[in-house]
Amino acid sequence: MLLILGQGYSGTFIARAAHAAGQQVLGVRRQGGEGLIAFDDPALPDAIASASHILSSIPPDSSGADPVLTRFHGLLAHHGGWLAYLSSTGVYGDAGGAWVDEATPIGSGRREARTEADLGWQALGATIFRLPGIYGPGRSALDQVRAGTARRIDRPGHRFSRIHVADIAGAVLAAMQQRAQGIFNITDDLPAEPRHVTEFACRLLGAPLPPLLPLDDATLPPMARAFWTERRCVSGRKLARETGYRLRHPDYKAGLLAILKGIE
Fold first, then answer.
1. What is the domain-level CATH number for residue 133?
2. 4-13, 87-96, 211-220 — which is least confidently predicted?
3. CA–CA dist 196, 159 (Å, integer)
4. Contact assessment for residue 104 and residue 232, using Cβ atoms and an 8 Å cutoff
5. pLDDT tens per residue across span 175-192
6. For the chain, what is the HEC assignment?
7. CA 167 to each of CA 11, 216, 249: distance values in angstroms, whole numbers, following the listed order
8. pLDDT digits 0-9 by tens, 128-172
9. pTM listed for this prediction
């Protein structure tokens, strides 16, 4: 059984892919539901003990601690199955726009809590998947353009990596089936400036371009503004090399076209 701790947006796609592959799946959220149990359900420790595969996508909480490690570290430390954690490429910090890969040191950026969680799961022997900006159906530049919330910020050379949520599911499932170990970046092959993604989405929809604003003129909340303090391009070659998985959406153009056509 695959136990998904934190079955949110990405976790739901992973669950769907695992079901399609014939896997039994149990998801965990704050509140239970069909095929789900709550994080505070007294049955969760037994589910952890009996699961053959465990994947956590729960981020650090407001105190900076990983809720899963805080509560279940002992159980996980003695678990004999496959453990995995969805981390963030934010742990690499600012690379000045240079390329980073799984051998790049972590912990120099603003994501201190995420780095600690990443290291904590590594200490348990978990497979670590580091993810950049996630997009997909219902959460893409197309949706922002349609909603009138898309922005274009003029920040030449400020490129970022992305990943379509269906490729997160495909990559995790491929690694799980092979019981792959280690650290893997799951990322597309075309880091790009956010404005270029918005402009492509506008062209696809035949929509007018939002105004091009300097960063200092854009009204952004502190978390969003902090996003612009770091630059890096993330390599995902190790994933293909060691698991054989090939991205279904290797760049944002392919991904947005697929979303527009209703293809996952």
1. 3.40.50.720
2. 211-220
3. 10
4. no
5. 999 999 999 999 998 999
6. CEEEECCCHHHHHHHHHHHHCCCCEEEEECCCECCEEECCCCCHHHHHHHCCEEEECCCCCCCCCCHHHHHHHHHHHCCCCEEEEEEEHHHHCCCCCCEECCCCCCCCCCCHHHHHHHHHHHHCCCEEEEECEEEECCECHHHHHHHCCCCEEECCCCCECEEEHHHHHHHHHHHHHCCCCCEEECCCCCCECHHHHHHHHHHHHCCCCCCEEEHHHCCCCHHHHHHCCCCCEECCHHHHHHHCCCCCCCCHHHHHHHHHCCCC
7. 12, 34, 7
8. 999 999 999 999 999 999 999 999 999 888 899 999 999 999 999
9. 0.95
Domain carrying residue 40: 2-260
- Distance between CA atoms of 102 and 228, rounded to whole angstroms? 22
Report which residue type is found at 232: R
Domain count, the chain: 1
Of the candidates 199, 193, 183, which has an alpha carbon nearest to the alpha carbon of residue 235? 183
